[in-house]
Design goal:
This protein is an all-alpha fold. It has helices at 2-8, 50-59, 66-75, 80-99.
Length: 100
C-alpha cells in the first residue's frame, strides 16, 4: 500500500485519461496526499442478491443451489468477506464428498 500511496499515485498527476481503481477493506487515506484532489472515493455496497452470488459460484465451479446461496447472502449481509469463506467451505466439503 505504501508504494501505491508514495510512488504510483503522485506520478499520475496530469495523466487525465488514466484511471486507477483501488479496492479492498482498506484504501489509502487520500486527505494526506498531494493527489487528493484527483481522487474519488466510492464506497462499495454489499452484494445482497443471491442470484449474483449464484452466478459467481457457478463460474467458480462450486455446486450450490440458488436457495442455499441466497441464505448465505442473507446471513452474511451481502459482505464478501463473510460469504466467500463460506463458499470455500461448501466447495471443499462437497468436493471431498464427491471423491469418497
Amino acid at each position: 500500500m505504501k508504494w501505491i500511496e508514495r510512488q504510483l499515485l503522485p506520478r499520475t498527476d496530469g495523466a487525465g485519461a488514466l484511471r486507477i481503481v483501488i479496492a479492498g477493506q482498506t484504501v489509502p487515506d487520500r486527505a494526506k496526499h498531494v493527489w487528493a484532489s484527483a481522487a474519488e472515493h466510492v464506497a462499495l455496497q454489499p452484494i445482497r442478491e443471491g442470484s449474483d452470488w449464484h452466478e459467481y459460484s457457478q463460474r467458480q465451479g462450486i455446486d450450490i443451489s440458488l436457495e442455499e446461496i441466497s441464505l448465505l447472502a442473507l446471513a452474511g449481509q451481502g459482505r464478501p468477506g463473510l460469504i466467500y469463506p463460506l463458499l470455500e467451505n461448501v466447495a471443499r466439503e462437497r468436493g471431498a464428498r464427491g471423491q469418497g
